Fold this sequence. Notes:
The protein is built from five helices and 18 strands. The chain is mostly beta strands. A twelve-stranded antiparallel β-barrel has the order 1-2-3-4-5-6-8-12-13-16-17-18. Strands 9-11-14-15 form a four-stranded antiparallel beta sheet, with no helix packed on it. Strand 12 (about 270-285) and strand 13 (about 290-305) form a beta hairpin. It is elongated, with a radius of gyration of 25 Å. The protein starts with a helix and ends with a strand.
Amino acid sequence: MPGGFQILTGLAPAQLPGALTQLSGESGTATQQGGVHLANLYLSLLTDPSAADRNGGGAMGFAAERPAVDLSPAIASAYAAVGKAPLPQGAAAPRWNVWGTAFGGSSKTNGDAVLVGSRDVRSSAGGFAAGADYRLSADTHLGFSLAGGATSWSLAADLGNGRSDVLLAGVYGSHKFGAAYVSGAVSYGNYWTSSFRAVRLAGADTLRADFNAQDLGARIEGGYRIPLWTALDVTPYAAIQVQGFRTPSYGETATVGSAQFALNYDARTVTAVRSELGSRIDKSWHVSDGSALDLFGKAAWAHDEISDPRLNVSFVGLPVASFAVNGATPARDLVLVTAGAEWKFRSGISVMAKFDGEFAERSVTYAGTARLSYAW
Length: 376
């Protein structure tokens, strides 16, 4: 047995749990936290109904539209130059839209140190996405997007941390059926990841691992818009989202001290399936200069089915000594809330900001989004 491991035989029983926790490499189980969180944010912004109508040209949101007015482009332009109200429905609706969005958030998941032996995990994720979409008809649009971002995570009790640089790509679309809609998106992400942890049993050893992880995700959502007598519109909706987050087999090396406690981690694919059921609510005001203000919100219940955050590992110096390490288990049932506002200018420019929160018994997540878009 390597000399560092022999130190364990001289520890008192009360000291062994802390020593074995340092050796276990639990920080490797937290890699998925930031990755799944970032993909959640990205898929949501691609399929958000407030974003689906961002290139204008129709009724606000997913309300049923009035019959189109057949105006030539020249007449429509003259109408826009002279009039102070928005164009009639169907009049020279913008076809193209380009947009940029900054998004990010943080979350905390509580571990179970007594029964499972896991520690609390804090993670953050954020980035900037840009995209373009084209309105095929008054009811259908398709688009694509690229995004760059980063994730980070850390375990309680200084048991390890990590970070990743991320490149995301996605395609999305939406179609309206009168007051009903369906939207969907598919995304792919590559995560250039580094993890770090310290072991202080036989000196001060700092261990590092570098590897690439991938995430493939998809989301589909459908709803039906119901105007209320209060001038508010309510949209009950349901959504299903699936992700697969894969980490390869990789090993640690020492950046400080010895690699005697370095670990090899087995390849693993985490599956995350989220189902949502809730309602969106919004209200719009048209201003005399032709602009419009939209206020919107959401309240929903989500159920997450995520693979057990367990990793199979072995010591580099003791390859036959393999074991499994557990991480903090994500919550299954969550309450989702959203509040935001968007200002659409007659020039085709619009700005939007919103807040999202996810609340559960063992976890809490906060996120924010800001978007600038231009339609023509």
